[in-house]
Amino acid sequence: MMEIRVLKYFLTVAREGSITGAANYLHLTQPTLSRQLQDLERELGQKLLIRTNHNVTLTPEGMILRKRAEEILNMVEKTESEFSSLKHDIAGEVHIGSGETYAIKSIASLMNKIHKNYHNIIFHMYSGIHEDIVEKIDNGLLDFGIVMQPADLSKYNAINLPDKDSWGIVMRKDSELAKKDFVTFADMEKFPLILSRKVYRKPTPDNEFYRWFNGKKDSLNIAATYTLFYNGAIMVEQGMGYMFTLNNLVNVSKDSNLCFRPLKTEMNASWCLIWKKYQVFSPAAKLFLEKIQEQFIK
After folding, report:
1. What pLDDT, on a 0 to 100 scale, did the predictor assign at position 96?
2. How much is the pTM?
3. 17: DSSP letter
4. What is the DSSP string of 26-91?
């Protein structure tokens, strides 16, 4: 059976890129560490490392184990924290994942109020795309997720959040479209687009972007994709294209050389807080949920 200690050894080797470097970091002899890794490979029946004279690289199977080992160790740390919190008056950690949205302000405000009253509660915020967030919830690495609707909520409980975002285009202020008050699909056929990966990869009926342009993807000039809005904004600044995104996420103040123009046909994004059905919460997470319900369920 795999041991937590050996998984830590494996992750250290993956990070250091060499048996020698990892052994020095772990204060182990190189033969001892090599033997532990060989035992792990035999146990799993897979070659995990490609060894050369000076370094090691991960095999495809090794990369799978690295991802799972990180999740396992995060879960161990989270469990230890939860049990440690039982020794104190409502203390512990709450893990929340969210897509990038200004709608999180209501959650942040509530987190602030809780922390002022319960100094031993610590909130951990993870930013990621929808698929990453639900995977981490399913694996027990997150207590809650904030996801954009529509979404498949069959496995989750959910509370709708009050704030909404609007879809539109971020562009340079010196661009041709910046002279307009809103943007149409015909406008965008003329210029290179920068899209989020979610929008680009999922041409489904509930995909906001595809609803907007009626599935006419082939008529568009898609220049790039992004997962973080900040990186997309940098590409816009460099003149790479026009970014289809939500309002309030990119700096478009008077000091910025970027601006935001909404779509002519208004299209809003709604968000909800989700958690696994029949979830058993730590005292800290349970308190957070109770405060959420008090504030958002009337």
Report:
1. 95
2. 0.67
3. S
4. HT--HHHHHHHHHHHHHHHTS--EEE-SS-EEE-HHHHHHHHHHHHHHHHHHHHHHHHHHTTSSS-
